[in-house]
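Researcher: We're teaching a course module on how sequence relates to structure. For the next exercise, students receive a sequence and then see the predicted structure as tokens, so they can try to spot secondary structure elements on their own. Here is the exercise chain.
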Amino acid sequence: MRAIIDGVESGADEAVVSVFDWGLQRGYGAFEVIRSHRGKLFREEGHLDRLERSLAALHIASPPRPKVEDWARRMAAIGGDAAVRVIVTAGGRDPLFSAPSRTIVTWEPIPPVPDPFRLLPTTAWWHPGTDRGDLHGVKWLSYAPNMAASDAAHRDGFGDALLLTPAGEVLEGPTFTVAWLRREVVETPGLEMGILDSITRRVLFETASRLGLEVAEGRYTLERVLGADEVVALSTTKEVVPVAAVGEHPVPGGPVAEALADAHRAIVAEELA
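Model: And here is the predicted structure for the students to work with:
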């Protein structure tokens, strides 16, 4: 089994939604990806809280929370070390055909991270870069511009893109948060930049505290990152990964990235023990 759709188990070949669903036609819906470790979900509550906030912002009714929790846990038990994806579509609005909203839960293998992991600075003209919109921080299905940026970076030989505002301020990756170390201070873009309130970003504050490191949030230009001692990418699937280069600028590297990764793994182990 690879999918549960509205509680109905389905194989990969039978998992379908209506072609009239706006989730397909217009990318209208919301999703979450939760990391499963040996069949147990990490920070499930935070992910599902954010899913409900995203759906509320899009005015899509949230499915019953206990059911979603059950479906996600069942999928985690099947996938083991995997990424559990929860998707809620908007349904359709065709007057001649009813296409109700669907809740889809799947599992996926954890994708490998290129080694070395290099980021291509990319101006994200589509990114809000602000906290003044009703859709601030929504994790919606409309990821096409982000995926196009990732694909463009891959074609140029990079592991992924680093998204920037037109003014050259650092935002995030297409599917991850970024942070860097300067003079023993971990810096990361603030949520006022319109970036996603990443669950792994939240864990960063905990791991940095364990290591006695200060964390600063704010608005930073690309030059700030290029002058960093270490740079890391943070996400549910990547967890904490050191960045080897930003554009053609090598990152010196050091022990802090690995220390943050170790501390992250320690928190996972403690919570899922």
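Model: If you want an answer key for the exercise: The two ends are 26 Å apart (CA to CA). Residues 160 and 179 are 15 Å apart (CA to CA).
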